[in-house]
Design brief:
about 425 residues; mainly alpha; Growth Hormone, Chain: A; 2 domains; 17 helices
């Protein structure tokens, strides 16, 4: 593995997939369509936010239950691209179907089913996409390719968002003569994202090398399920991976909670308007992308574990500063700086998983990796809500995020550099 030649076209095409599929979380589940659903489709913003949250939670549960199973099956079938193509296509088609969701409460269930299905397929695709990396990159260069892909993802999502805002949302005359009175300028985000994903994912399906098929589909399913059962039975033989997944589960809860409630905190404690929040979201995505790219070399030079330690430590310090300042200007400065370390924490986690996972079980292990990112996703928001209520303070609630970073760091120190 260490002496193989790198296929640059395969790797660049692999990275472009991050550019392609990041349009979905950026435009659909974070910025535009999520706001359209809560403000225009649901009966109220409060009920809409709760319904959207349940749809995301159920789709995440589906990933947590399905990812390890299909990952184990894929490890025995050999090929990963057919799985990745199927989930990418499903995600793109479900996203494109959001065009049919009109600004009427009668479309609530339809919207939630479509966005839940699209999110499930998006997350499942990432299981197979991530598992391809260690087979493509030369040992010692996994970190930089992971970082470059992650950085491209941030900028791909932002580019699609920019097209959406300029061409459809923030203009009096949307492209293609779309009718604002029937929310066509917002509904178009579904087809736009679906098309974006499929176009920019094509290089991976055309040029990225896949593992050869190693057995029949029936045998792969049988062996995959058997292997997964054995993995859980013999989990003590994978202690290093388990320790890392537990540590990642904790600090990822902190990251996810930070992203989910950062806007609420900015609006409530610093008086950010909706336009301010969009601009701040764009700014933090830019710095996160730059951080992922810049730390890509650091990952390969000092190792992914140390890179994660640096990133999560910086997130803890900067997050603490955000709790004691009162100036909106300082919030912009520190919040943007915090973004620099979000990307490396995520991309180095992927490269550490690639380093620790046994070669013959990589997709299964990335299925467990997906599980670790979803299994306790409720803990962060729950603790934040409890502390906010107990102290009657947004700042006290946000302080709970630091607990996840600190505990995750402590657990990470016990993870060896190699399996």
């Amino acid at each position: 593995m260490a002496h193989k030649e790198e296929d640059k076209r395969s790797l660049v095409s692999w990275c472009l997939y991050d550019w392609a599929n990041s349009a979905f979380p950026t435009v659909i589940t974070t910025f535009v369509f999520a706001a359209y659903f809560t403000k225009g489709v649901a009966t109220s913003e409060v009920s809409g936010t709760a319904q959207w949250g349940w749809a995301m939670s159920l789709s995440a549960l589906g990933v947590a239950l399905t990812g390890p199973v299909l990952g184990a099956v894929a490890d025995h079938s050999g090929r990963r691209k057919p799985w990745l193509f199927s989930f990418t296509l499903l995600s793109a088609l479900a996203a494109a179907s959001l065009w049919t969701v009109q600004a009427d409460a009668r479309f609530i269930v339809q919207a939630l089913i479509l966005v839940g299905l699209a999110n499930f397929a998006f997350e499942m695709g990432m299981v197979f996409y991530n598992a391809m990396l260690p087979d493509l990159a030369v040992a010692g260069r996994v970190g930089r390719w992971s970082g470059w892909g992650w950085g491209l993802g941030y900028f791909g999502g932002l580019t699609c968002l920019a097209v959406t805002l300029v061409g459809f949302v923030q203009t009096d005359t949307p492209w293609f003569g779309l009718d604002k009175s029937t929310s066509e300028h917002l509904r178009i985000t579904g087809p736009l994202v679906g098309l974006w994903v499929m176009i920019f994912a094509l290089p991976l399906f055309m040029w990225t090398v896949d593992k050869p098929s190693s057995t029949t589909p029936g045998a792969a399913i049988s062996k995959g399920l058997e292997t997964l059962v054995q993995t859980f039975k013999n989990i003590r033989h994978h202690r290093t991976v388990v320790r890392f997944l537990i540590a990642r589960m904790i600090y990822t809860d902190g990251l996810n909670t930070l992203f989910a409630f950062g806007g609420i905190y900015a609006a409530g404690s610093f008086g950010f308007s909706f336009e301010d929040l969009i601009l701040f979201g764009i700014a933090i995505n830019v710095t996160a992308g730059l951080g992922a790219v810049a730390f890509a070399w650091v990952d390969d030079r000092i190792g992914p574990k140390r890179t994660i330690v640096i990133a999560v430590s910086a997130l803890t310090v900067l997050g603490g500063l955000l709790l004691i300042i009162n100036s909106q200007q300082m919030f912009w400065i520190i919040g943007s700086a915090l973004g620099i370390f979000v990307g490396p924490a995520q991309s180095a986690s992927r490269s550490l998983m690639a380093k620790l996972a046994p070669q013959q079980m990589r997709t299964e292990m990335f299925g467990l990796y997906a599980l670790s990112g979803k299994a306790t996703a409720f803990l962060g928001p729950a603790l934040l809500a409890m502390m906010t209520t107990a102290f009657n303070s947004q700042r006290a609630g946000m302080a709970s995020i630091l607990i996840f970073f600190i505990v995750g760091l402590v657990l990470l120190f016990r993870v060896p550099e190699s399996a």
